[in-house]
Structure formats: structure tokens, C-alpha cells
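Researcher: Can you fold this with zinc ion in place?
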Amino acid sequence: MLVHRVRVKDSALEHQFQIIGTAHPVVEEMLVDTIDHFYLITGGLYRQQETSKIYSVHLDTKEGNNFQKGDQIYLNTVNLTEWIVTHELAHALDAAHSWQLSQQMKAYTGSGFLCKPLHYARPLWKFFWYRAGSPPPPCGIDKNFNSLEDFAETVTAFIFPEEAKKRAEARGYPYEKWGYTHFHDTPRGKFFKGMVAQEKQ
Ligand SMILES: [Zn+2]
């Protein structure tokens, strides 16, 4: 088992990533580099925490990519990208703050469900899907989209703004449609920039 350690900047905290399973060395290197890059940008957000974290990263070639309770990160090494890894790390960041970061962003952007019970009762009815207030939305929205995914995609887009811009254009919703040229200038980009900047002081 490979253990990757990250020291949280300006603190005594150390986060451990216990990598279970193997992948091609190139994929493993990308994974470790992406974790380091993530902490370079978001590390300050962990500084106020009292305990260090131990994450288990499960690598396989069959399951999907997701973050599960107990600090478990599941990654499928087939077609794994920096974008996917960062998205799951963003869920981990949100979870480390009791899911309050996504709640704050939901309030800031005025996003949410029109009627959550109806959405669960009728998941295919688009009318009741999550509404991303303060456009542009961070990605395409489907029946599974919610404030947690909104936050994770926002963090990922913030870290990879060029890729995010390309993805938005490919979906047919370029930022220019709302008068923006860069993700960091959009309401979501500004929200996360503010969050990170606050912790640097
Ligand atoms: Zn997700």
C-alpha cells in the first residue's frame, strides 16, 4: 500500500492518503500530483481543523468514482483524470467541514431545489431538478445534481479554469453568454476565491 502524506500549510496537521490497489505508474503519479496541487490551493481551508485526516483511496477498474463516508475515496483508474480526482477531493474538503462549504455556496448563489420531496418522488421531472442560481452553472445538470455536486464542480473548475471553460463551451453554454470570460470572475469562482483568500490571512 502506498501512503501519500500531505502537510497542511502553516499547521502541524498532516493528511494521509492510503492508496489501496494499484494502477499504472503514470496514473499513480498523476494521482499524487493532483492531491499535492489540490492542497496547494485549498490547504488553508484545513488549517482550523483540530485533527489530521486519514483518507483511504481505493483504486479499481470496475466501479465508479465517488466519495463515501468514513473518508473513503473510490477511483476507477480507467480514464482517470486530474478533473475526476479533484472533484472527489472537493467532496472530501466539504465533508471535512460537515458539508457546510456547499451549504454556504448554495446560499450565496441562491441555488437549490424548488421542492425536494417532489424531486425525490419524480426524479425524471426536469422541473424539479436542482436549480443552479447565479449562472453560469459549473457543469451540466441532471437528475442527480445537488448542492454537493455544485460545490465539487465549482472547486474543480476553480483549480482548472481553462479546462472548465472548454467544457462549458463544449456543452453549448460558454461563459460569454453571461458576460464572463474566466471562471474566476463568475459568481461561483468569486465565492471560492473569497473562501480560499479568507483562510490565507
Ligand atoms: Zn461528485
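Model: Folded with zinc ion in place. The chain has a mean pLDDT of 93.
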